[in-house]
Amino acid sequence: MLAVHTRLNQQRFTPDFTIMPHQVRYHEPRWWKESVVYEIYVSSFKDSNNDGIGDIPGIISKLNYLRDLGVDIIWVSPHYKSPQVDMGYDISDYQKIHGPYGSMKDVDTLIERTHALGMKIIFDLVINHSSDLHPWFKESRSSVDSPKRDWYIWRPARYDAAGKRHPPTNWRSNFGGPTWSWDEKTQQYYVHIYAPEQPDLNWENPDCRRALYDTAIRFWLDKGIDGFRVDTVNRYSKRVDFVDAPITDTADETQLAFQNFTNGPRIHEYISEIRAVLDEYDVFTVGELPNTPDESDVMRFISAQEKQVDMVFNFDTVYLGQTPGDRFRLQNFTKKDFKRELTKWQDVIRDTDAWATVFLENHDQGRSVSRFLSDDPAHRTQAAKVLAMVLGTMTGTLFLYQGQEIGIVNAPPSYPVEEYKCIRSVNHYNKIRRQTGGDPTALEEALDALQKVARDHARVPMQWDDSANAGFCAACVTPWMRVLDTYREINVASQIGNKGSVLEFWKAVIRFRKRYKDLAIYGRFQLIDEHEDLLTFIKEGTDGKVLFTVANLSDQPQRWSLPSSYPMLKPSNLALSTRSQGVDHFSLAAFEGRVYVSV
Ligand code: TEU
Ligand code: CA
């Protein structure tokens, strides 16, 4: 580790090289660049007291498992006090714990035990909006003269010629329906770009911002956490002229309005303020960056010299097959699309001082094996392994989502709509029912979309073993979400120590990534796109060594050969393989993947 640092530092300052804005020759090593982050969805990870809901003591009981996997940082989904309209992304007190998850003492213990095992821990920072049950909002809505009135965004109604009341703008919220809700008592609308129970905080108000910094950020950093995953980092600043969005959907009274409430004029000023607080500590941040297609806009968030966040989640890959603004209107996509989107940010950050994230799953997405390759029982193990290998050799901080390490797949098409609990899924299905008067074909189509891309697939209980309820809760009657029937075949216990398993392969990938970090993590990415069904890329080190990844993304064998443009690569350089035996130099089996490292 030391050797790499020294070498990179020396080379960065060679006199013949001039540093252009945002441009650097090598990525500067940092602990958070080299870390593997594992996202824990508290309610579905491990239930310690058999009430059917995962909890903090449950996480504590699995810390050894995470360390053995090779995880460096755990990211805990919102554990704050919340009425759970949006699974904790609606916070009613930033300094309290959601009762069923445990106590403040449990959280202190979690932080302490995680650190004691040599891992770090980050929390979710949700400060675009609060819950409508937050005391600030209760006070804000109590009267137009309330001192906290201006902490949220209130506007008068508009009236049409017939005297009918309408919201101040035609904006559509992320969960469907208008972004405005009417408040009877004070006769004004407030804005919420998610659910009505998630009113947006007014970042234009400096007192409100200060209160957020103190209660949501400083309070937890002082407890010793190592950073934050920042929810929707680019929506705090909105356009304050409150104009209508262009009409693109004549069938609906609300319209897509991302441009009105995303990346507003003061966004970088606000993030600089947050950054100033964070810089008092040795921590890192990863921001969620939806609806920002322009690469130079993204750079303003992730270039080190801009001092904003350290990296962002771009959604290009996980949104494949969805219609922008209409997640459940599905479209076809090809392997070519998958390769292009997956590798896009590798290219953008190359030779710059910006950093990327590498991920295919989180609590808002379906399972990667089902979505991008194949969850057919004949293929799913190989498919999960080849994705692990690809992710494990890409540049950026690697994020794993609970269950991804054992290759959990989506719930099956036979699942009835009642099994879907997420507000987004439920709202969508109800909207289709309303709009079509319950037309069976339309409802079938809606259910098919849920089966493919609903957030619920990530939220089912973790599959620990083949006992009742998959070991998520030993003696509970019903877990809050139904356990997938596939838990008998796909679970942690059956994969630990099993050489061909997805779990053991992930461990090998993580070890490999760390051992060859100057290539796998920091190497210069170069896509070699010569074959429709294969994903192949080079990672070049500073010393002329190269790493080469080849992944067969199809369920058919493929003939192939090492790239002739890199003559230093030899068959004997095989360093990692998804197959434990039977590696054929001239052909790749279905979903086979290999990594070669030149010597
Ligand atoms: O997600 C943000 C999110 O879902 C949107 O910004 C999304 O990218 C947009 O709707 C375009 O489709 C975060 C959390 O991850 C999610 O679980 C929460 O529901 C949401 O914020 C609200 O806090
Ligand atoms: Ca519990």
Q: Could you characterize the architecture of this molecule?
A:
It contains 18 helices and 24 strands. The chain has 599 residues and is α/β, with parallel strands linked by helices. Strand 9 and strand 10 (188-191) form a beta hairpin. Helix 13 (380-392) runs parallel beside helix 17 and helix 14 (423-436) runs antiparallel to helix 15.
- What is the count of β-strands? 24
Shape: globular
Supply the number of helical segments: 18
Radius of gyration: 24 Å
- What about the largest sheet? 8 strands, parallel
Bound molecules: 1-O-alpha-D-glucopyranosyl-D-fructose, calcium ion
Distance between the termini: 19 Å
Helix content: 25-40%
**Which spans have pLDDT < 50 for at least 5 consecutive residues?**
1-19
Question: What is the quaternary state of this protein?
Answer: single chain
- Classify the secondary structure makeup into a structural class: alpha/beta
**Largest sheet, spatial ordering of strands:** 13-12-11-5-2-1-17-16
| Average pLDDT taken over every residue | 94
Beta percentage is 15-25%
